[in-house]
Specification:
mainly alpha; two-stranded antiparallel ribbon; 72% helix; oxidoreductase activity
């Protein structure tokens, strides 16, 4: 079987699994789990085989015309280069782990068949984006992911948080997709093709007439899909969905799609220095702002959500300085350790009966109750904080080295201003990342208070995937020196300067947070905190839904808890109340967009009901009155009709005489 045939099967198998799961979900529920797991697992094996065959060498292209469309045809095309085959391995491995984890996490969920089918469809759509060699086919996968995220984030539709989050995710990403679609058409108009290879060839030959406009239009869609400032606000709220969905969205699909898209079309963006500077500023604001917000969150999943936004900022920063190898390297590394973090968080929430870090900090023994989650989460947090020799250290260093080279003029793909912006913001974000990672670990696993109730071991399906994903979290970075051929031949090894700087500021951030935590242990001992679910022994998905509801009921919001023992509150000081709300961006958007749109809708409704309907109803009323008058004249009495006829004839005769006399007198 050829490599292209194997590659075509990779997205096709999860798609067929989704169709099969939907078809037999109710009639034969025993087949749902195999149809969810086996096609995705087989796709993972095939993706690894495709990666081995491609070997980081020359890109493999294959295409057939999908349909004639006139001057710009749409092709069913595959483009397999080092980036594509490695990202496909990440997607399929994480998706397989998520499907296996979900069999236990939602074991008694009545909607599990549709959930599993949507996860498979989500996976297939992302793989279509990764392997596609045509922009229109890529767009199909791009939009299918948006639909899947709407349904999966809203899986707990009984809760108001999930309903609002799913709608918000859909609308915010669609807000970016409108200019994105216009940008795709403008790009095809300038280059004469939707084929990615032909587009890049045209760009290399100077065939792009409006590079800045096209790049900015495309960046709008990327900002929405990959949760970059200012369209990032949907991602923290999307934590209202099931934890396995959060892992899939953050580690391998959806948010990774925008970064991958820019990496695939980087020459288009590099044709405009202004667009790269805009991308650099967007990445810098995203990195720093999300780090501050993560330090203020009480919901363990919202901490991880803001963490994802910040790490995506690093990837965007690498692209802003023209190094797509560093960006994709960090994308793959981040996908491994972020999947561990979310799936381990699901185990922790189930064991503790709460998603509140404030409540966990009043519990003791949580690390002993869930040793698998404790150790794997510790490793993943070290990778997140970029502590050597874990994967996050090497991939984040690759980003900082690329920024350093651009800032010092050693690379000229992007302006030096973009390099300095990313380098400074990246070091500042490293301090914040270490700070919120240490805070999460201390509050979750070093709590003091009542013992966490023991309700037995966590299911093997949930704990085994943590160790599977911990392997690349620990070891993937060590392959940095061997992966140059897969990443455009660029070296991904750290430099001494950035390694010392970033590791130094990381240690400072972690130690300062530890000191703040020690300072707040006294208030923690005397301040009770609630928000613990009533049934910690129930199905994990049910515990999570109850935890969200109880958190909002106890504190009035899913994001915050009025906890004087929170080290984040001490470190942020007056900034805390702004950071916990995401710096009031939702309120700003409500004032600038939501309220005006609703006011306009109310005006249109008023005009429709009170003006347009008045004229329409008035026309009908006049017609009814005329009909009534005519109907009353129809008495059925012959004498009445003859009398009316004679009266009318007499009136006409008199009128004729009068008219004749008037004419004779004139």
């Amino acid at each position: 079987m050829t490599t292209t045939t194997l590659a075509a099967l990779v997205p096709l198998l999860p798609f067929l699994g989704a169709l099969g799961g939907l078809a037999v979900g109710r009639a034969a529920p025993g087949f749902v789990r195999p149809l969810a797991l086996l096609p995705t697992l087989t796709a993972a094996v095939l993706a690894v085989l495709v990666a081995v065959r491609q070997g980081g060498g020359r890109a493999i292209d294959a295409a057939t015309q999908l349909t004639p469309t006139g001057s710009v045809p749409i092709d069913l095309a595959l483009h397999l280069d080092g980036f594509a085959v490695l990202v496909a391995v990440l997607v399929t491995v994480v998706a397989t782990c998520v499907q296996l984890y979900s069999t236990a996490y939602l074991r008694d969920d009545a909607r599990y068949p549709s959930y599993a089918a949507l996860v498979s469809l989500f996976t297939s759509a992302m793989l279509l984006v990764v392997y596609s060699g045509d922009l229109m086919v890529l767009l199909v996968g791009w939009e299918i992911m948006g639909i899947c995220s709407y349904f999966l984030v809203g899986h707990y539709w009984e809760t108001p948080e999930a309903r609002a989050a799913s709608l918000k995710a859909f609308l915010v990403t669609k807000l970016g997709d409108v200019p994105f679609l216009i940008g795709l058409f403008a790009l095809a108009a300038d280059t004469g093709s939707f084929r990615i290879a032909k587009v890049l060839a045209a760009v290399a030959n100077g065939g792009l007439e409006h590079p800045t406009l096209i790049a900015l239009l495309l960046l709008a869609g990327v900002a929405g899909k990959s949760a970059q400032f200012p369209l990032h606000t949907w991602l923290p709220d999307a934590m209202a969905g099931p934890t396995p969905v959060s892992a899939l969205i953050h580690a391998a699909t959806m948010v990774a799609a925008g970064i991958y898209f820019v990496a695939r079309l980087l020459p288009v963006f590099a044709a405009s220095g202004a667009a790269l500077v805009v991308l650099a500023v967007m990445a810098a604001v995203t990195m720093v702002g999300s780090g501050l917000a993560a330090l203020a969150q009480d919901d363990i999943k919202r901490v991880l959500a803001y963490s994802t936004i910040g790490q995506l900022g690093y990837m965007s920063g690498a692209l802003a300085v023209g190094d797509r190898g560093a960006a994709v390297f960090h994308l793959i590394s981040h996908g491994a350790f972020k999947a561990v973090l979310f799936l381990a968080a699901g185990v922790v929430i189930h064991a503790a009966g709460t998603n509140s870090l404030a409540a966990m900090s009043r519990m003791s023994g949580l690390a002993r109750r869930v040793p698998d989650a404790y150790w794997t989460m510790t490793v993943a947090l070290l990778a997140l904080a970029a502590i050597p020799p874990f994967a996050g250290f090497f991939s984040k260093e690759a980003v900082l080295v690329a920024a350093e080279h651009t800032a010092l003029g050693d690379r000229t793909v992007a302006p030096a201003a973009a390099g300095w912006t990313i380098l400074i913001a990246g070091l500042l974000a490293a301090v914040l990342t270490a700070s919120y990672a240490v805070r999460l670990w201390l509050l979750a696993f070093r709590g003091r208070g009542a013992e966490v109730p023991d309700h037995g071991k966590q299911p093997l399906a949930m704990t085994s995937v943590l160790w599977i994903l911990a392997v690349p979290t620990i070891g993937f970075g060590l392959t940095a020196g061997l992966l140059g051929d897969w990443f455009d031949g660029h070296a991904l090894t750290p430099s001494l300067t950035t390694a010392v700087l970033s590791t130094g500021v990381t240690l400072v951030g972690g130690l300062v947070t530890y000191g703040a935590w020690r300072h707040t242990t006294a208030p923690a001992a005397r301040t009770p905190i609630g928000a613990v679910a009533a049934h910690p022994g129930a199905e994990p998905a049910l515990v999570e839904a109850e935890a969200m509801t109880s958190h909002t009921a106890a504190y009035g919001t899913i994001a915050d808890a009025s906890d004087p023992a929170d080290p984040g509150r001490l470190l942020l000081g007056p900034l805390h109340r702004h950071a916990v709300t995401g710096f009031h961006l939702d309120a700003l958007y409500t004032a600038l967009f939501v309220r005006p749109v609703r006011a306009a809708a109310r005006l249109v409704r008023f005009l429709d009901r009170e003006v347009v309907d008045t004229y329409v109803n008035g026309t009908g009323a006049v017609t009814r009155l005329l009909g009534t008058a005519v109907r009353r004249a129809q008495t059925g009495n012959v004498q009445t009709y003859v009398s009316a006829l004679l009266a009318g004839s007499l009136a006409l005769a008199i009128a004729a005489v009068v008219f004749a006399n008037v004419n004779a007198g004139s």
